[in-house]
């Protein structure tokens, strides 16, 4: 696609437009529904409707929208996402994530990889299972490649002796060049055949599956942008109220700050789930547009990189469980971030702690320092099942304890409890 003289990937460009429309639509609808300021239809629109004789009937509201019936949950959502600066931040982070995922999901362009993917596609058309049908195809292809090499050796000698014409030798050279171009990819097919024959003695439902696409689907990278969104949005969740002094006013309410705490936590979890859904859909769309994803019904052991352990569900089941584990990890980190914010006196303190916990271990690991690998949050965003289940479960107790302790400290006693306590002592 040529955009203003610049070559742009059309699929990526369409994905950017759809993603921006989705982000802006969600945030814009929140601003429209929850903005406490008055909203009236402009007088010009009313006059235009009258000039057409009432044929155009617009829902003209005589009374403005007010906020007296707004629930705490909707109000907390608006405070979190309804500000223009937050909306701009989300758009920029979404574009940054698209650029990073575009690089991550770009397939290899080497000649051997292209030939290997072409062979896997041919084997898939034959059923893709590791059986006699695919074995016969591989044997025929191996014989043809060997014949092309031998034919070229003999043809070279005949052409020098004048026994064949230049046109005939050109056809022989073309077949030999093709055989040379696919030799590396076919060698990988032979390696896969040998692996499947050895593995089929222990496991069933094995076949020729797409390696690159499946590995990117089942072993995603650390979602740095998602971690940054959680850090920036939720570090201010409770600490911002305490920093501004509004938390003291909330305590004077009849039921204290408990309803506000529940609304804030529910809003944080809801935003996390929506962002996970948007990011997951964009990842799956980009993955499906660049990789054929052959063999989703075959077992996990069909791919040599997943040969460890005894877990062998179908690839599509493993993909679903991996995505659900990523959602659980994101929700756990949201609870952790909310508890950290409830304990922090200032937003900067909460943001600093979350940066050290969420992003610090990943950065040190990327620099080659594995000191903080046991507390690395990568399995929560990019789990490798079933190996990372224990590491994900290890975050449950700290997140729950931090949330409960931080919530009890942030809520404190309500005005009624303080009043009754004072009357009792009097």
Describe the protein's architecture and organization.
The protein is an all-alpha fold. Helices cover 69% and strands 1% of the residues. It contains 18 helices and two strands. The chain has a two-stranded antiparallel ribbon. The longest helix has 34 residues, at 166-199.
Mind sketching the topology for me?
Layout: E1 2-3, E2 6-7, H1 10-34, H2 43-51, H3 72-81, H4 84-104, H5 111-125, H6 132-161, H7 166-199, H8 211-218, H9 224-234, H10 239-244, H11 246-251, H12 258-290, H13 315-343, H14 347-366, H15 378-381, H16 389-393, H17 396-411, H18 415-425
Antiparallel strand pairs: 1-2
Number of DSSP-assigned strands: 2
State the end-to-end CA separation: 80 Å
Number of domains: 2
Structural class: mainly alpha
Read across the widest sheet, the strand sequence of neighbours is 1-2
Q: Helix tally?
A: 18
Largest sheet: 2 strands, antiparallel
Q: Helicity, in percent?
A: 55-70%
Observed structural traits:
single chain, 426 residues, 2 strands, mainly alpha, disordered C terminus, two-stranded antiparallel sheet
Describe the structure concisely:
The chain is mostly helical and 426 residues long. It is built from 18 helices and two strands. Helix content is 69%, strand content 1%.
């Amino acid at each position: 696609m040529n955009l203003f003289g610049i070559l742009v990937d059309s699929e990526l460009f369409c994905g950017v437009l759809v993603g921006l429309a989705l982000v802006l639509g969600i945030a814009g609808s929140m601003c429209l529904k929850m903005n406490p300021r008055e909203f009236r239809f402009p007088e010009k629109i009313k006059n235009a409707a009258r000039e057409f004789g009432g044929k155009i009937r617009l829902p003209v509201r005589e009374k403005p929208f007010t906020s007296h019936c707004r629930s705490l949950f909707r109000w907390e959502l608006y405070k979190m996402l309804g500000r223009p600066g937050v909306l701009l931040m989300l758009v920029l982070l979404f574009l940054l994530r698209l650029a990073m995922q575009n690089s991550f999901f770009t397939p290899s362009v080497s000649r051997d990889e292209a030939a290997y993917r072409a062979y896997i596609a041919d084997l898939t058309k034959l059923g893709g299972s590791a059986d006699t049908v695919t074995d016969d195809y591989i044997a025929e292809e191996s014989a043809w490649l060997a014949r092309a090499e031998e034919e070229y050796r003999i043809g070279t000698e005949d052409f020098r002796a004048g026994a064949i014409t230049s046109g005939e030798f050109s056809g022989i050279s073309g077949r030999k060049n093709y055989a040379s171009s696919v030799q590396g990819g076919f060698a990988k097919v032979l390696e896969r055949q040998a692996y499947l024959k050895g593995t089929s003695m222990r496991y069933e439902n094995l076949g020729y599956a797409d390696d690159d696409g499946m590995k990117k689907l089942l072993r995603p990278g650390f979602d740095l942008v998602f971690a940054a969104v959680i850090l920036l949005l939720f570090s201010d969740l409770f600490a911002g109220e305490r920093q501004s002094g509004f938390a003291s006013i909330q305590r004077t309410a009849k039921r204290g700050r408990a309803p506000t705490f529940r609304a804030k936590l529910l809003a944080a979890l809801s935003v996390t789930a929506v962002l996970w859904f948007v990011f997951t859909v964009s990842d799956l769309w980009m993955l499906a547009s660049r990789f054929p994803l052959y063999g989703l019904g075959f077992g996990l052991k069909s791919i040599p990189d997943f040969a460890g352990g005894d877990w062998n569900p179908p690839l599509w089941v493993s993909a679903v469980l991996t995505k659900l584990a990523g959602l659980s990890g994101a929700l756990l980190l949201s609870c952790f971030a909310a508890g950290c914010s409830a304990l922090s006196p200032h937003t900067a303190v909460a943001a600093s702690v979350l940066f050290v916990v969420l992003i610090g271990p990943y950065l040190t690991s990327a620099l080659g320092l594995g000191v903080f690998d046991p507390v690395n949050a990568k399995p929560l965003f990019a789990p490798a099942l079933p190996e990372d289940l224990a590491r994900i479960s290890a975050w449950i107790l700290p997140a729950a304890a931090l949330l409960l302790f931080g919530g009890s400290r942030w809520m404190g006693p309500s005005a009624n409890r303080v009043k009754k306590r004072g009357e009792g002592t009097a």
